[in-house]
Amino acid sequence: MKEMEVELTNSRLNGRLEVPGDKSISHRSIMFGALADGKTTIRHFLKGEDCLRTIDCFRKLGVKIEETDEEIIVYGNGWEGLSEPVDILDAGNSGTTTRLLLGILAGRPFHSVLIGDESIGKRPMDRVVAPLVKMGAKINGRNGGRFTPLAIDGSKLNSIQYELPVASAQVKSAILFAGLQAEGETVITEPQPTRDHTEKMIEQFGGEVVRRGNDIIVKGGQSFKGTDVYVPGDISSAAFFLAAGAMAPESEIILENVGLNPTRTGIVDVLIQMGADIHVQENNTEGEEVGTITIRTSNLKGVEIGGDLIPRLIDEIPIIALLATQAEGKTVIRDAEELKVKETNRIDTVVDELKKLGAEIQATEDGMIVYGKSQLSGSQVSSHGDHRIGMMLAVASLVAKGTIELENPEVIAISYPSFFEDMKQLIKK
Ligand code: S3P
Question: Where are the domains of the chain?
Fold first, then answer.
């Protein structure tokens, strides 16, 4: 295990940056490209480890995928173009690959086995397996199908009316993929709106999906047509630089071509509520919203976060916790139990690691409470193998006195391989 020393105390950050492509959209572009008829060309694809796992799985399923520096080209042959893999499909650290693939494989007429790394092996898959089994899927795994490895015997699926017990775009998307192959009309009811990239992509690839209130409705038997996809910058990656720009002295960062899908922009709303000097300019685009975000050094104040906002910023809570340590007053994050089943238990890992840096922070049943503003100081900390914890701790080095020794920083490549280069490029000491 590697260790990295990061000392950025009092650095000024200045400049323009285009963060890598959105992780959720990158995964889905490979999936729809593989299921469509004809060629799909993807630009600004995220070549992070998670999305490369999705490419690897679809190659094992018989789909031709070419990679160049600029583009990924997927040669889809429709649903029938997928063939039985002779090898195990390994999703690595990627929950999106595992869960969405389950929805696709459940209806394909062959046998497949899906595994992931140690973290994936602990994450609940029954939330996807249970509705798929109700649709007629045959999936077996450890603990009655709760954990990977999972063996799938594809079968004919029937449609379902399903109320999601948790607000999860991965579960919604898995059922959508199954519903697209099923007999009849599938209706999914969400407790709260979650990211809608799958729905947007169904339409982009020539399919049909209806949103009515909290219901998402798809008809089975749909086919798709290959198309060109531009993947906007990942707002979940941009979030680390939004926080960095707000906290570092005399700084201004301009983030270009960032995805601004309203189901993902909770971090912008929270920064505004915290009193940040932030400006958003939306471009005129069709499909996924894209724009420029400018952030400057800010005087921040504590906030209360909960309810419908949570799914719109679920992956940003680690970096929001760090921001809260630098905000005047108390920040309360509630309704975020889902953090416990992310790449790590992010309530525990955020609280434990920030405490090591001297933060006043406490875990609660469904979130955390942070008391600011506190002077952080360098210490030995760990990413716990979680990319977003690693990036949050690296950004903490901007406001901590002394050196942060970050264990296992290489995990950051799961979602942001050029994170440290991008950070360096903005530093104007
Ligand atoms: C994702 C959905 C979210 C998110 C994850 C990516 C997706 O997970 O945390 O990083 O691409 O659909 P849940 O569906 O578990 O909320």
Answer: 3-20+232-428, 23-215+222-230
